[in-house]
Amino acid sequence: MGQITELTQVIPAAPGKPVRPEAAASQQASVELALHPSTWSHDQAEAVVRRYTELAPVWDGDRGGYRPVPLTDALQRGGPWPDGLCLEVGCGTGLLSGLIQDVWPEVISLDLTWAMLTRAPGRWRVLGDASRLPVGDGSTGAVVLADVPLFAGEVVRALAPDGVVVWSNALGEDAPHHVPIPTVLSALESASDAQWSARTAHAGWGLWAVLTRVS
Ligand SMILES: C[S@@+](CC[C@H](N)C(=O)[O-])C[C@H]1O[C@@H](n2cnc3c(N)ncnc32)[C@H](O)[C@@H]1O
To answer: Where does the Methyltransferase type domain start and stop, copy by copy (predicted)?
Structure first.
């Protein structure tokens, strides 16, 4: 497996990290999906839409304070960044879209839940499922995944050869969508038949990783 380099944490974690009781079960499902994407089902997609339709009105108010922290750190320290189109997978209400657009002026923001997506400010918003990304092969310079399911085959298909994957979990190892970075790396390697490397760091309550193919 490719190399994982951990950078020093520069943004400390404040007291009062929220606890998500659903995290353990959700993490198990997220790992299962990262390793076996063909298990994704219509019922799972419907459950996601139900859950986030309920959460959409309170998402920014409840979570807006801490969610941008790891991605901000990733975008400051995780580069250099390739040019090109960026695909923000599972953009939600667009809490992070502005940060991404500061790096990649052209961002497609994708989400499965209309109630979330309709609140997002992005210029190009697409209602769709990350298991079938709405872009051509090799057409994107970056794919950003902030607390969303990983469909590694689709990410690899969408990325240009020098493209980057930016991964973040706003509550770190306690996030419902957390997948350990070695598992993310290994899923990308299996999907691409290539070696990848990762740089990673903790930031605030969260963590991030930037993953690239080893040339
Ligand atoms: C935990 S929220 C994260 C939202 C945003 N990235 C943020 O950090 O605030 C997960 C989002 O991913 C979306 N999502 C979950 N599964 C998806 C899928 N298969 N395809 C597209 N979006 C999905 C949900 O609808 C929800 O908006």
So the answer is: 87-166
Instruction: Decide: 68 in ligand 1 pocket, CB within 6 A.
Output: no
Ligand 1 pocket, mutate which of 125, 148, 179 (most atoms under 8 A from CB): 148
Assess whether pLDDT exceeds 90 at residue 215. Answer: no
Residue nearest to atom 27 of ligand 1 (CA): 92
Residues 2-61: tens digit of each pLDDT: 999 999 999 999 999 999 999 999 999 999 999 999 999 999 999 999 999 999 999 999
Helix, strand, coil % (nearest 5) of the chain?
A: 40, 25, 40
The CATH classification number of 22-213 equals 3.40.50.150
> 71: closest CA among 213, 186, 175, 185?
175
What residue ranges do the domains of the chain occupy?
22-213
| Ligand 1 in reach of 104 Cβ (< 6 A) | no
